[in-house]
């Protein structure tokens, strides 16, 4: 997973073309700069990232993982109308079994139209991309790769609950996303990644659940954020991809949401698109000439790798897009 120019992901895209969403001409012109959205606190979002890391490494089945899962469910329950903890078991690349918990929190659960917002909350147990090979079997703190996306969504839940859009919102924190096959293995298998989203897409928390669209946050907290239009997002959700990047441009973030088509990423959105048939876009860091960001899958992916303002930018662009489609109705 998470390798640019991932050939296997290209094959998955082609294999899943039956679920490709038809392009729809959007005649609804939105002045995103004028769209009213809740006030997002960058400091609050950063604090939620720090609180996740304070538990320790969120490796499935560990004490820190259990404590963080309880924390996430409790916090989301303060702001959302319902919280569902979907428990499952996953087989890892080496045949071992681990428990998983997908945490689903909803605003306005009775609404027919829904928007899905997601991130993964587990942290990788092997720093197999660390430049120091002696650290390859040490855990990754997972500050940017994991906690950043969850933190941004937590603050969005807090602030959107006081000014809900005219659509239902479902926040999903996927588990066992980042436990895929290590780089030192001599084999590779796409499906060893993203176990939580695979399980949810096949066993949704509400029977026949669907959403108008979805947005996935992954590695959204670097001090130099750069997001491009990756191929899986363009293929399955071209209209939403363009809408998000248009909103970003209207807010002056065109140097962050770069209008550049790039290679596919194997991430949770692939399974939401392919299996659940929900058009979902991945907002994921794409630093030039390296794998995602400097500290990806290393022991240095700690809080120093997270910038509060970057969390705010990603959340604001996403909220401008949602509220542009579904304004708050006082």
Structural class, from helix and strand content?
Answer: alpha/beta
Biggest sheet, in brief? Answer: 6 strands, mixed
Mean pLDDT: 92
CATH topology: Aminopeptidase
- The percent of residues in helical segments reads 25-40%
Order of helices and strands: HHHEEEHEHEEHHEHEH
Strand order of the largest sheet: 1-2-4-3-5-8
In total, the number of strands is 8
Shape: globular
Per CATH, the architecture is 3-Layer(aba) Sandwich
Task: Identify low-pLDDT runs.
Answer: 1-11
Summarize the structure in short.
The chain has helices at 7-15, 42-54, 63-79, 143-160, 195-202, 231-236, 238-250, 268-274, 308-325, and strands at 82-91, 97-107, 114-120, 168-174, 213-218, 227-230, 257-262, 280-284. With 330 residues, it is α/β, with parallel strands linked by helices.
Description:
It contains nine helices and eight strands. The protein is α/β, with parallel strands linked by helices and 330 residues long. Helix 4 (143-160) links the parallel strand 3 (114-120) and strand 4. Helix 2 crosses helix 4 (143-160), helix 4 crosses helix 9 and helix 7 (238-250) crosses helix 9.
What is the element layout, followed by pairings?
Layout: H1 7-15, H2 42-54, H3 63-79, E1 82-91, E2 97-107, E3 114-120, H4 143-160, E4 168-174, H5 195-202, E5 213-218, E6 227-230, H6 231-236, H7 238-250, E7 257-262, H8 268-274, E8 280-284, H9 308-325
Parallel strand pairs: 3-4, 3-5, 5-8, 6-7
Antiparallel strand pairs: 1-2, 2-4
